[in-house]
Amino acid sequence: MSWIEILSAVAVGVTAGGLLVAVALRWMQTRAARDLAEEMKASFGSLSFDALSKFLELAKTKLDAERETHAHDLEAKKGLIDQQLRQMTTELEKVSSLMKELEKDRVEKFGQLASQLKSATEQTTALVQTTASLREALSSTKARGQWGERMAEDVLRLAGFVENVNYVKQKTIAGSGSRPDFTFLLPRKLTLNMDVKFPLDNYLKFLDAKSDPERAKYRTDFLRDVKARVKEVATRDYINPEQNTVDSVLLFIPNEQIYAFIHEQDSAILDDGIRQGVVFCSPLTLFAVLAVIRKAVDNFSLEQTSNEILSLLGEFKKQWGEFLGKLEVVGKRIGDAQKEYEALTTTRRRQLEKPLNRIEDLRMQRGLPIEANYETTTPEKRGDDADPPAI
């Protein structure tokens, strides 16, 4: 029972008592019942006090029960809160441990990153120095030519070409004085010439230009250099039917970027070069061209080998026929010898044994022992494999 219910009961009791008191007062207004009213008032007050005491005792009992219940609830909630606090503490410890590991890993990874950045910086510095050295070295026309020839030799080696077998270097063309950088040896004694050209100066100036007018100027100068190289190659005797060359010559550009720049800026130069019999090649396209040449050489070699094999087969067939003829003659001779041998082992042998048998019969008639005449008896009569007696 709550406090509100107790107070309500008390209030009801008080209200009821007040009404009774009012009734009694009115009743006591009469003169005859004044003493009786006083006595009843005292009795009613005693009853109201007893009722209030019972109400208070009941309220105290209820409050004690509720306090004990709330105490048990609070104790249970306290245990639950303590358990949750312990779990939170454990989770916080795990989070703290994880944060420490992450911090340790971060420090380690940061150290690795710093080391890698340092290494990358060193490599970049070395690359810049190498690029500068290479650029300085390639500033010489002779050095560029040598470097381009080295690039061409690397591509030839990758394609499986062997010097003095599939190609020759720097061989002067007889009667003209021209000397291509490479001459490829093709089937039927045909040749294909290739020159190495490296137009670099104006290309580098174009890359270093700071303004559009400068870039336009150096672009024009670069394309003019390329056209000059095409004309230079086309006017030499690199294409000469009298020297048994094919009707094309290769112009090797030993740099993919420069080759792509020519394509990008003015592809008409390449078409004009093809009309003059000059075929542009970069390291990649040269490898493809060499693969075609190698395939053509292999096919020609295979064709030539096939013809030789067919010729050898014809010769073999002829010799085989003669061998069979000789073998037949030998077979006939062997057959004749076999017949003669059979005649010797049959007819001739029987004819030779007749007189021997007659002699043996004569000796038997005279009573001579067989052992005494062992040497004169025939192998058949002796019963062994001894040779017949010499006559």
Describe what you observe in this structure:
With 391 residues, this protein is mainly alpha-helical. Among the domains are: 3-24 and 43-100; 141-281, Trna Endonuclease, Chain: A, domain 1. The chain contains nine helices and five strands. A hairpin with a 5-residue loop joins strand 2 and strand 3 (191-196). Helix 1 runs antiparallel to helix 2, helix 3 runs parallel beside helix 8 (283-366) and helix 4 runs antiparallel to helix 5 (212-235). The longest helix is centred in the N-terminal third of the chain and has 104 residues, at 34-137. The protein is flat, with a radius of gyration of 66 Å.
Count of extended strands? 5
How many helices in DSSP terms?
9
Which H/E pattern describes the elements?
Answer: HHHEEEHHEHHEHH
CATH topology of the domain at 141-281: Trna Endonuclease, Chain: A, domain 1
CATH architecture descriptor name of the domain at 141-281: 3-Layer(aba) Sandwich
Main sheet specs: 5 strands, mixed
CATH class of the domain at 141-281: Alpha Beta
Overall pLDDT: 76
Strand composition percent: 5-15%
| Estimated radius of gyration | 66 Å
End-to-end gap: 163 Å
Which stretches are low in confidence, meaning pLDDT under 50 for 5 or more residues running?
6-17, 372-377, 381-391
Which structural class do you get from the secondary structure elements? mainly alpha
Please state how the strands of the largest beta sheet are arranged side by side: 1-2-3-4-5
Q: Looking at the structure, what is the overall shape?
A: flat
- Helical residue percent? over 70%
